[in-house]
Amino acid sequence: MTTTHKTKKKLRVVLLADERLLPTGDLSQFSDKQQLLRKTEFNVKQAIETLGHELIAVGVSDDLSTIRGAIDAHKPDIVFNLAEEFHGIGHFDQHVVSFLELLRQPYTGCNPRGLTIARDKALTKKILAYDGFKVPEFAIFPMKRSTERPRSLGFPLFVKSISEEGSVGISSASIVWDDARLMERVDFIHRTAETAALAEQYIEGREMYVGVMGNERVTVLPVWEFFLEKKPEGAPLIATDRGKWDPDYQEKVGAVTGPAEISPKLAAKLQKLSREIYRHLGLSGYARLDFRVTPSEDAFLLEANPNPQIGCDDEFASSAEYAGIDYPQLIERLIRYGMNYDQRRMII
Question: What does the alpha-carbon distance between residue 236 and residue 207 come to, in Å, rounded to a whole number?
Fold first, then answer.
């Protein structure tokens, strides 16, 4: 049965995406791995067109005048922002949003202040720990600086980039058990991600994700869980770079996500935590909060991910569908949140 989606008003939407991921042509022309990288852009484009809105896709690279020109030429009601970098630098995504705000142009997704805070994983943990939220103990290892592990920080440790997203630089070697391996992995992050490294306490347990969307009033989605169905006995449960972006490897290890089979009490706890953290970090639009849940049901926030992947079968959209929100309806909600967000207000 085909669902018909009627909207109150036909909108003019500029879809802003990284130039290399611009949804042109047909997704099937790409390899399986390339499709994984591009599916959000293609899925969002199709959903916007299904909703009956006018869509103009614009690629972002290293020139702000491209954005200004598209806005001046098309005068969009909303910019659907999927840009994840500028000039090839990931944490410049917050400046793209700042530019949209300076133009007083409505856009989807998180505000620049929330993006700035959440991008710095150490800063996120400091803010949350200050007010009593559970986060892993951690240490920062800046580039080009000699830093030793604090003796209070015991092994095992999990080493990752302080700012890169999408599981960049994460593999089974990210878990280290001694100082020699720690410094090897820190050096690896410095060389490959070209960022400071974050070494945090490795929390044994289940990995769960909670989607949150909205501005002043928010909707919290059902708790989702990451599984490795073919994980060898004793192997760690971690979402690696290959597990996220390599379809063959996903099949090999059985990397899947689905509804978390947990008690209503734990589900309510995680959803309440997610709502509080979302507000505490000043997020808006939509975000996915990643938790590690111990056997005793302590929930540690690993990362806050504003503007997560929203392909039709990614965790965020899948949990929304599980809650009765189909994909075009989800995209329509994100558009409305963007149009209703008051850029003059700080979300706290």
Answer: 11
Per CATH, the number for 137-201 is 3.30.1490.20
Quote the Cα angle for 307-310-21, to 5°: 85
The residue among 114, 118, 115, 110 whose CA lies nearest residue 302 is 118
C-alpha 308/C-alpha 208 separation (Å) is 15
Alpha carbon 55 to its chain's center? 24
- Give yes or no for a contact between 205 and 186, defined as CB atoms under 8 angstroms apart: no
Residues 6+ apart with CB under 8 A from 217: none
Smallest CA-to-CA distance from 27 within 256, 332, 313, 306 is with 313
pLDDT in tens, 105-116: 999 999 999 999
Class of domain 204-340: alpha beta
Q: What is the pLDDT of residues 282-336, one digit of tens each?
A: 999 999 999 999 999 999 999 999 999 999 999 999 999 999 999 999 999 999 9
- The residue behind tokens 């959209």 is 317
* CATH code of the region 12-109: 3.40.50
- Tell me, what's the pLDDT at 1? 36
Measured CA to CA in angstroms, residue 300 lies from 59, 206, 245, 294, 296 at distances of 37, 10, 25, 8, 12
Task: Pinpoint the alpha helices (H) of 198-263.
Answer: 241-245, 247-253
Indicate the pTM of the whole model: 0.91
Task: Give the whole-angstrom CA distance, residue 237 versus residue 207.
Answer: 8
DSSP 90: G
Domains of the chain by residue range: 12-109, 137-201, 204-340
